[in-house]
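One-letter codes give the sequence; the integers encode the fold. A sample entry reads:
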Amino acid sequence: MSFNLNNLLRDNIKKLVPYSSARDEFKGEASVLLDANENAFGSPYTTNYHRYPDPLQHRVKEKIYKIKGVPTENIFLGNGSDEAIDILFRAFCRPGKDNVILVPPTYGMYEVSANINDVECRKVNLTRDFQLDIDGIEAAVDGNTKLIFVCSPNNPTGNSIRRQDIETLLVNFEGLVVVDEAYINFSKLPSFTKDLSEFPNLVVLQTLSKAWGLAALRLGMAFASKDIIAVFNKIKPPYNINQATQEIVLEALDNVTLVNTWIQEVVSEREKLAVALSSLEQVEHVTPSDANFILVKLQEPRALYNFLVSKGIIVRDRSRVELCEGCLRITVGTPEENVALLEMVAVFYGSSSL
């Protein structure tokens, strides 16, 4: 396959002259900043936030580079992964003309962003073992297919998609393959970020919301070739990551050891939770998970969900999602939270085996 990024871009994006912010127009340090119409007197707060933040988040990207080994020129930071997803549609998909491939059951924001941008979604369901239907995807692709989204480990099923199948898409598809690795920290499998130089049509999405425990800050990451990242930066708002988020993330990224400890604890609790639930005769199947949640097929899922809600325990009802019929998605909590969940599940089913 001969990949040509220019052939994928929308014509208006090729011609787009991005907004040039005040902080883009000079390099280095300055003692008097009178360029951006800020309030020079400071902020009505203990920390001064009266200056606009670094529009390209250089310090944060440098720290991410040291952790993940991905050069800063291959990193885009967004207001959650959702911003990166939306930019992909706006950059590469012509409204009312182009289409993307989704592989349900999968993360719902791909379809939401497609609908917002008036882009057709062609759905090729995963197989019964929650793997890619390569032949089905090939049949669905046409000359106007610009993106294929693959979530791995997948949400809501929790399993990883076979690497060789994703590589098959990357080699044979002329558009972009977007691999969403929001849950990669909980998997033993390597990240596709190591393969950016091999596959010019690869975009990898990750987040600080899961393993890093920074969901409230809304910081997502996209990794791709420098040319694709340049497109992201061309389209994004000039100051899309605020100063407070950048400061907190910089401090948090110094705590790799703590995060790795949490990941180990989550994986350990995940296995305990899966074993305990599997022991119930009312539980039909627990999907092996590489994420921080498990998908459990069980009897009376909606009634159990409502019962748990009444006890102040919230899980996710996926029982009406195709291929997830009869399933609840349960996030792995602390040991105490998992015990509380199991106790209430046992009460609901009238079991004493947990």
Q: What stands out?
A: The mean pLDDT is 96. The two ends are 54 Å apart (CA to CA). The domain at 5-17+54-254 is CATH 3.40.640.10 (Aspartate Aminotransferase; domain 2).
